[in-house]
Write a structure and sequence with these properties.
CATH class of the largest domain: Mainly Alpha
Shape: elongated
Number of domains: 2
Helix content: 55-70%
Number of strands: 0
CATH architecture of the largest domain: Alpha Horseshoe
Distance between the termini: 23 Å
């Protein structure tokens, strides 16, 4: 029995560059007193999200993220720290105060949605990602993040719609193609799922999850030779990828059984 597609591929992305000029321009015309107060709360919330990494900091994370969208990754602040629930609750509280200080604060809505998602409050997370989108329809990652939350609620068509919108904003977003393929797979649209996994691989040839996922979809179409090639490639990229090893073994057995049946 083949293992299910690897759920680790469905991970939120804290922030990714897109249309920052317009966002920065809107920030410049806000009331600076209100916005600076909102930034203060945002920074406290961001530190709470990364409390297992950060002890203290005087960096203005709000401005750093807006001015340099790669800032969190460069500083290993991925918002994927193994926090305790209280850390996320603190983050939600601070982001809520930031939003109260400056209501059209799309960045704060996006990160508050991230904290709610970490607590498995998927519906609340969707509400926050939706609010970020209402403030700015092209807000970086909000469609993608909402799509991930929809996937966890098994609302796969809504997830597909959001991933498609994110891809329109950022056509080179390999994660969005992979996760759209995941949602299509769950809807048993295997050929379309394979097409998305293939695009994800073309964008990122070292994307082991996408190779594994494409292999699983090929197995459902009984294309075992192609599946074995994909699982093998996934293992070559990531020798510790246990799921791929299991799938490779299963696909090899299925191909062997099929060959014997044809004799």
């Amino acid at each position: 029995m083949l293992q299910k597609l690897n759920s680790d591929s469905n991970a939120l992305v804290p922030f990714k560059s897109a249309n920052l000029e317009r966002l920065n321009a809107s920030v410049e015309v806000t009331n600076r007193i209100l916005y600076q107060r909102a930034e203060l709360y945002f920074n406290k919330g961001f530190i709470s999200l990364n409390s297992r990494i950060l002890d203290h900091s005087e960096i203005n994370f709000s401005r750093e993220i807006l001015n340099d969208p790669q800032f969190p990754a460069k500083n290993k602040l991925t918002c994927e720290a193994k926090n305790y629930p209280d850390d996320y609750l603190d983050a939600i509280n601070y982001f809520s105060k930031a939003i109260s200080s400056y209501e059209p604060y799309a960045l704060a809505f996006n990160f508050r949605g991230f904290a709610k998602f970490a607590l498995k409050e998927y519906e609340g997370a969707i509400e926050d990602f939706t609010r970020a989108i209402e403030i700015d329809p092209d807000f970086p990652n909000a469609h993608y993040n909402r799509g991930v939350a929809y996937s966890y609620l098994k609302e796969f068509q809504k997830a597909i719609d959001d991933y498609t919108k994110e891809i329109a904003i950022d056509p080179d977003f390999a994660l969005a193609y992979n996760n759209r393929g995941f949602a299509k797979y769950e809807l048993k649209v295997y050929r379309e799922a394979i097409e998305d996994f293939t695009i994800a691989i073309e964008i990122d040839p070292k994307y082991a999850f996408a190779y594994n996922n494409r292999g699983v979809a090929k197995c459902d179409l009984k294309k075992y030779i192609g599946a074995i090639e994909d699982f093998t490639t996934a293992i070559e990229i990531d020798p510790n990828y246990g799921n791929a090893y299991g799938n490779l073994s299963d696909a090899t057995k299925e191909l062997y059984d099929l060959s014997n049946d044809e004799e």
